[in-house]
């Protein structure tokens, strides 16, 4: 399946034909349903199929202006157009969750690069603020993990606008780390949390999201220094949001002993 997705990614990068791109969207939907059919999470599959195919039809019909850019962003689940992803991730676990957050996005990312709208940088910046605010209201560990992945993907796409080669390298690095982490830490919605997860997603130095954000910031610094300072302040906000995990982890074993 990974080889097939890499082939579709190469195909979407080599051509700018709308029909071929739409065919790639359809094949990625089929791949996702094939991988998840044994999980019996039919509500997630139906939601995913309806959302993706509706957006695919809009992509074919609205092939003018910047509409296609917004449609691709919504298909990937880039913040602030990520409202639909929780209806999918609530019923998938382990490698299927990892696939949804990484490999499933690869062909869409390469198509987005070809039709990018430079002013969309401000939309991505707004999406980061939405993510940080949403983190304060979430209580479910798994949803926090999904939202953190969405936020990191926003950073990667912001880096794409500045430097394509750096961002592809970062995305490969991000995928490899997610393959190892998500399968280990998402077995269930409550029991997978441990100190390794907290240190990884708290933007600790040499952790997963740390390098993604530092390299993206170094590219944005060449373009707008004020925006970089605001983003550094927002990264501190994300650390505050994940302090919820720290509090829960501190009392987790105490509660277990009481039970």
From TrEMBL:
The keyword Metal-binding does not apply. It comes from the Eukaryota. Keywords: Membrane, Mitochondrion, Transmembrane, Transmembrane helix. The chain crosses the membrane at residues 18-35, 55-76, 82-101, 108-135, 155-181, 193-214, 226-247. This is NADH dehydrogenase subunit 2. The gene is ND2.
């Amino acid at each position: 399946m990974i080889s097939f997705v890499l082939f579709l990614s190469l195909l979407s990068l080599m051509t700018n034909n709308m029909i071929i791109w739409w065919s790639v969207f359809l094949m990625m939907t089929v791949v996702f349903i094939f991988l998840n059919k044994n999980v019996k999470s039919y509500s997630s599959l139906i939601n995913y199929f309806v959302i993706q195919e509706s957006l695919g039809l809009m992509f074919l019909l609205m092939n003018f202006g910047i509409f296609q850019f917004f449609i691709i962003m919504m298909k990937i689940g880039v913040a602030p157009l990520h409202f639909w992803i929780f209806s999918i991730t609530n019923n998938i676990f382990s490698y299927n969750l990892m696939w949804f957050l990484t490999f499933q996005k690869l062909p869409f990312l390469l198509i987005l690069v070809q039709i990018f709208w430079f002013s969309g940088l401000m939309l991505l910046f707004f999406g980061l603020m939405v993510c940080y605010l949403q983190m304060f209201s979430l209580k479910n560990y798994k949803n926090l993990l999904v939202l953190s992945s969405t936020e990191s993907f926003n950073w990667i796409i912001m880096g794409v606008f500045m430097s394509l080669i750096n961002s592809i390298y970062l995305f490969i690095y991000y995928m490899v780390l997610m393959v190892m982490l998500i399968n280990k830490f998402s077995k269930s919605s409550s029991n997978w949390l441990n100190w390794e997860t907290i240190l990884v997603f708290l933007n600790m130095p040499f952790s997963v999201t740390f390098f993604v954000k530092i390299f993206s910031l170094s590219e944005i610094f060449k373009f707008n220094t004020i925006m970089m300072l605001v983003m550094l302040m927002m990264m501190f906000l994300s650390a505050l949001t994940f302090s919820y995990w720290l509090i829960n982890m501190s009392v987790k074993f105490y509660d277990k002993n009481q039970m």
